[in-house]
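Q: What structure does this chain adopt?
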Amino acid sequence: MRSVLAVLAVLHLCCVQASALTIVSEAAPRMVVEENGVLWGLGVDIVRELQRRTGDASPIGVYPWARAYAMAQREPGVLILPITRLPEREALFEWLDPFLSLEWIFCAVEGKAPRLASLEDARRVGSIGTYPKDAREQYLSAQGFTNLEPATDQIANIRKLLAGRIDLLATTNISLPDVRELAGPEGRRILKVLSFKTVDVGLAFSKGTDPAVVRAWREAFAAMREDGTLQALRERWFPGVFKAH
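A:
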């Protein structure tokens, strides 16, 4: 009897280990923030609530976006957030429903802002600050833009924008207040000059992830939306920005 129980215990442990997730993210203001070893933000709260409902205890790892994105493409059992859902990415992941919609925008420095009436106008500026493997960079590159200038992090792009080394910065409507704050006193001079696309953002599993795990997380997310938890979390981090839907 003891030997049977021992075998069952080993099998249970193996199942748990097989279903363990690798959760990866980039640092993003008010979404995933790492401060003194503590993680906080909307994305963190959503993941932890989903973990509570599914019984998962995997830690969230914060990496440069290019590394997190690569991990989610080459390894099974990876959950990545926050990730923009685009047609060219559709077949690459197992998607959960989005937890927010946002606008992609170009911003510039007051007094130096080029006149933009459409996305086409942005092709003619000298340079646009982006991030490697970022959805905005991928989208603009697919549109044939050749004036993209990627930087390793947001601070580098902001400094380049204020110094006049790039003409535009590609960011989002919800990130603009954080861009201004990170820029310091000069941040008030950073203005939105064009909104060029509306996108959905959420979580996705890598291909090869246990279908039972994907199904459980999808069901938990649907329940969060239905019972109002998702909207309460969005309102906590971005008051008045996102309507319930």
